[in-house]
Design a protein that fits this description.
Oligomer: single chain
Number of strands: 11
Order of helices and strands: HEHEHEHEEEHEHEHEHEHHHHEHHH
Strand content: 15-25%
Shape: globular
Largest sheet: 6 strands, mixed
Helix content: 40-55%
Structural class: alpha/beta
Radius of gyration: 23 Å
Distance between the termini: 69 Å
């Protein structure tokens, strides 16, 4: 009798296995896929990977693609092939002028010196006219270099622009093909080590850059994604700052995770994000949620870069620079490319975060 009972139990267990397996499949299929794009391999853009690895949004399957070409990522966002995109804020006026369904929902971190202008050894400001100057066209470095030229009385048309990002500019600088270039860490350090006498003549920690509040990273979303799937849009915004909290509390662990993800040495990650869970002079300053909300005008208080509600001013200044540099033609309304209502909704719902550097 005992043997018969055991046999019945085994049969019952076997009958349950398909149901259990179905439950696992159903749970997996219940996860909603969110497609996230990353402009380039960059620690400041790696928070969604941290959220994915730590399962901070258990109801979502976050599929993350690094493009290494910011414009290609924006094209995919406009086409609706990705839902969320992390990149610099300077594309907002471009999207508005071209009537693309791309909306910026938050400014995440200002550049705090990591974006720089370098001169080749022996080159002076007086030598720059007529020379080759490297910067990525229609990307943050284009404006960084343009502002430095203007401060020194040089028009954008006085130089020959070469469309190169920082990693691409190191070789031509060493070979002497270009006189000045946009750089950021860790490429600046690699260049100064390889080319003695390289001059760092400007960086985004300087007041002329800092007060504009336009040099830094941000979060874009496809307009239809926001309209048709607002809950997911809110969740994706929230989880990004949940990941910032985890980074703040576990900076060394996260820096190692990012080093593996991006295939960078840990020391290069620290060149950008530091080790104190907040800011790194010479790198980037990570806005906590409240600071980002202040920049949007969603909560009271002054953010450390720019001003309260200064997001629109930053985009207007960006638009003006694109017109100066010949990238855009018109005077575009920044309000058409920004939607701070998601930040508003999170703040009104009680989400709050204020972080200090760890000692």
């Amino acid at each position: 009798m005992e043997g018969l009972m055991n046999f019945k139990q085994i049969i019952a267990g076997l009958l349950l296995l398909p149901l259990m397996a179905f439950g696992v499949v159903a749970e997996a299929s219940a996860k909603e896929k969110i497609k996230i794009g990353v402009a380039v391999s960059w620690p400041g853009y790696a928070f969604y990977e941290l959220a994915r690895v730590k399962n901070m949004a258990p109801g979502y399957d976050m599929e993350i693609t690094i493009f290494e070409d910011p414009i290609a990522g924006h094209n995919q966002l406009a086409a609706g092939n990705i839902d969320v995109y992390v990149s610099t804020l300077d594309y907002i006026p471009v999207a508005v002028e071209n009537k693309l369904p791309i909306i910026n929902v938050a400014f995440t971190n200002p550049s705090y010196g990591v974006d720089q202008v370098v001169l080749a050894p022996g080159v002076t400001v007086a030598d720059i006219k007529g020379k080759k100057v490297a910067a990525p066209e229609a990307f943050i470095g284009h404006i960084v270099v343009g502002l430095w030229l203007e401060k020194n009385g040089i028009k954008p048309s006085d130089v020959t622009w070469v469309n190169l990002n920082a990693d691409e500019g190191v070789g031509p600088m060493i070979s002497g093909d270009i006189a000045a270039a946009y750089m950021y860490e860790p490429w600046t350090s690699k260049l100064t080590e390889a080319l003695k006498g390289t001059q760092i003549v400007a960086d985004t920690a300087q007041d002329d850059y800092k007060k504009l509040g336009l040099f830094g990273d941000s979060i874009y979303m496809n307009a239809d994604f926001i309209k048709n799937n607002r809950k997911a849009a809110l969740d994706m915004l929230k989880v990004r700052w949940d990941a910032v909290q985890y980074w703040h509390d576990n900076t060394d662990e996260v820096n190692k995770l990012w080093a593996e993800y991006l295939q960078w040495p840990v020391s290069d990650i620290e060149f950008v994000t530091g080790t104190n869970g907040k800011f790194f002079l010479g790198g980037i300053y990570m806005f906590d949620f409240n600071e980002a909300a202040q920049f949007c005008g969603s909560v009271a208080g002054e953010p450390p870069f720019g001003s309260h509600g200064g997001f629109k001013d930053a985009v207007k200044a960006t638009n003006d620079w694109w017109v100066k540099l010949g990238v855009l033609k018109g005077d575009n309304d920044p309000a058409k490319g920004i939607d701070c209502s998601l930040m508003d909704e999170l703040a009104k719902g009680g989400y709050s975060q204020s972080l200090q550097a760890r000692k």
